[in-house]
Amino acid sequence: MVIRESSCVETTFFNDKQKTNDMKKITLFLMSLTLVGLTACAQKNTQDMKTTKTLVAYFSATGTTHKVAQQIAQATGGRLYPIRPEQPYTDADLDWTDKSSRSTLEMQDPASRPAIVMELHEKDMKDYDTLFIGFPIWWNVAPHAVNTFIESYDLSGKVLIPFATSGSSSISNSVKELKKAYPDYNWQEGKLLNGDPKAEVEKWLK
């Protein structure tokens, strides 16, 4: 009787031990599946950032708007694209107090469209569905080089998000004039970004 009882207890002990081992294996298997899923998700998010369809186009005469555009491109994973005039602006060109300076004459002529370097072809523009368009505010509107850029492409169906830098003006009139000039485009509300570029951009896009 004792031998049989001992044998039964021993058998039960080993069965319980086997069940415990099986449970450990199942738990480890489920944990491995979870890790694989998390890794795949992280890789997908990284890949999505790399294949983003966002273009951050900007005109910057002194470098201020360039710094903001860099932060937007970094935050969105978008492509940074400078709107560069074929003839760069000199300090004398940018002297707004001089009524005969290049920038003054351009901004006094609504039809002025300064030539820009066309590094982005029309077929390349089709790859993007969201465009951030940045500029310093001149005479309470966007510089006419920005108009040259907009009119160089078909931006139908794209989301256009203006942003600007300025020492004194708000962006409201600039956005108003862009919407007025190009009413068929999908314009979003603009943002004036002064101060610390990184902090301002993170606050705006969070």
Please provide a written account of the structure.
This protein has 206 residues and is an alpha/beta fold. It is built from seven helices and six strands. Strands 1, 2, 3, 4, 5 and 6 form a six-stranded parallel beta sheet that branches. α5 links the parallel β3 and β4. α2 crosses α7. The longest helix is centred in the N-terminal third of the chain and has 49 residues. The radius of gyration is 30 Å and the shape is globular. The N terminus is likely disordered.
- Strand percentage lies at 5-15%
The largest β sheet comes out as:
6 strands, parallel
Find the count of extended strands (DSSP E, 2+ residues): 6
Evaluate the radius of gyration.
Answer: 30 Å
Number of helices: 7
- Counting copies of identical and different chains, the oligomeric state is single chain
Fraction of residues in helix: 40-55%
The geometry reads as globular
Give the helix/strand class: alpha/beta
Element string (H = helix, E = strand) = HEHEHHEHEHEEH
Uncertain spans, ≥5 residues at pLDDT below 50? 1-14, 33-51
Distance between the termini: 75 Å
Average the pLDDT over all residues and give the rounded result. 83
Please sum up the structure shown.
The protein has helices at 2-50, 64-76, 102-108, 122-125, 144-151, 172-181, 197-205, and strands at residues 54-58, 79-82, 130-136, 159-165, 186-187, 191-192. It has 206 residues and is α/β, with parallel strands linked by helices. Mean pLDDT is 83; it is low at 1-14 and 33-51.
Question: Which SSEs are present, and which pair or pack?
Answer:
Blueprint: H1 2-50, E1 54-58, H2 64-76, E2 79-82, H3 102-108, H4 122-125, E3 130-136, H5 144-151, E4 159-165, H6 172-181, E5 186-187, E6 191-192, H7 197-205
Parallel strand pairs: 1-2, 1-3, 3-4, 4-5, 4-6
Helix pairs in contact: 2-7
